[in-house]
Amino acid sequence: LLGIFLTDDIFNLFVLLEVSTVVATILIMFKKEGRCFYDGLFYLSVQIVSMMFFLFGIAYIYKIFGVLSLTEIANVMSTGVPGESLILPFAFLLTGICLKIGFFPLFSWVSRSYGSPSTPFAVLAILSGLFVKGSLYLFIRLNRLFYPALDYTQFFLILAILTAVLGFSKALAQKDMKLLLAFSTVSQVGLIAVGFFLQDDISYWGSVYHIINHAVFKSLLFFTAGIIIDEYKTSNIHEIRGVFNRMPAVAVASLIAILGITGAPFVNGSISKYWLAVGASGTVMEAVIWVINTGTILVFIKYATILFGKSDTKAKTDVLKTSVSLLLALVCLAGGILGPQIMYSLFDVELSIHMTEFLMKGLITVVIMIGGIIFYRLVLSKTSIVYQLGTRALTFSQSCFVILAFFTSLVVYGFFLT
Description:
Blueprint (H helix, E strand, L loop, with lengths): L1 H5 L3 H19 L5 H32 L4 H9 L8 H15 L6 H7 L6 H26 L6 H20 L4 H20 L4 H32 L10 H4 L1 H15 L5 H12 L4 H21 L14 H19 L1 H9 L7 H24 L6 H6 L5 H22 L1
C-alpha cells in the first residue's frame, strides 16, 4: 500500500495492487472456515478479472507512449494527444480501479468480503480504512492524468451520486453490523468522488480531508463493532442493546465515530463535509450532498440503537482494546478541532472556516438528526420493504457481466466525447 503511493511506474502499480489483493484474500480467509474460503475466493476471482482489464490498459499505454512512467506520460499528454487514441487504455485502467473502490455498479464483492462471518474485524478495518483509500488515490491520479485529453467529469459525477445513494440505501437494508458498515463505506466513497468532480478547489480538498477522516472513524467503527460482537455473540443489530450500560468506554468511542461520519459539529467529519458543501454552495450539488448526508445520518441512527436500552450484565474490560478505541476517538475529535491546521501541515493548503456558516450547517445537521430519529422510529423501523434491497447479491458470472458492461459504457461515452 505504501508502494502504491510512492511509485511512478504504472506497471509497478499493477504488481503492488495484485500483491495487496492476495494479502487481502489471505486475511479474509484467515480463520480457515468454509464460508471464509468461499468469500475469499470470490473476492480474489472478481479482483483478478478487474485487474486483467488494468493490465490490458497498461499494454495500451506502453504501445502509445513507449514509457511506463506516469510523470513522462503526463508530460507527453500536455503537448496534446488525440483523445480517441486514449479511450481504450483509460477504460481498461479505470474499470480495474473502480471495482477496487466499490464504485457503482461494481460493488458486488462488498457483501462477500465484509459479510464473511469469520473475518476478523481488524481485517475489515484495514480493508475499509486502508485498501479502499489506496485505490481511491489511484482513481484520482489516473483521472487527472488523462484529463487534458479525456474529460469524464460528468460521467463519473453521475456514477458517484448513484454510488453514494445506493450505498446508504443498501446499508439501511442490513441487519448485520458488518454489512451496514461496509455499504456505508461504499456511500462515503461516492460522496468523496462527488467532491473530486465538482471542479472546485475547496470541494476537492474537502474530499481529500474526508479520505483521511473516513480512514479514522470507519476503522474505529469496525474495531468497536468487533468488540461489541465478541461480547454479545451476534452481529444482528436488532439483537444488541444496552452497550452504554454494558461497555461504557466502547460505547463512547462508537458514539464519537458515529458523530464523525454523520458530520456532527466539531468532530472530524464536520470539517470535511463543510468544505464539500462550501465548494458546491449555490448549485444543485449542494442539495445532493445534503441528501447523501441525510442518508448517512439515517444509517447511523439505525446503528446507534445498539448503544441504548437495558443490559443486566457488565462486560469484562479489555484494557488494550478499550485504549485503542478511545485513542482513535480522540483522533476524531482532534481532526474536528484542528482540521485547517492538519490540512496545512499535510498539503500546504490554507482552507478557512467561517464560523457563522459552519455553525449554521452544523445546526442543519442536528435538525436532520432529530428528524431522522423521528422518521426512523415511526417509519423505517416498522417497514420491511427496505430490507428486500439488502438481500440481493450478484453471482460471479453476473459480476463479470457487470464489469464488462461498465467497461463498455466507458468506451461508448469516450467516443461521444471525441
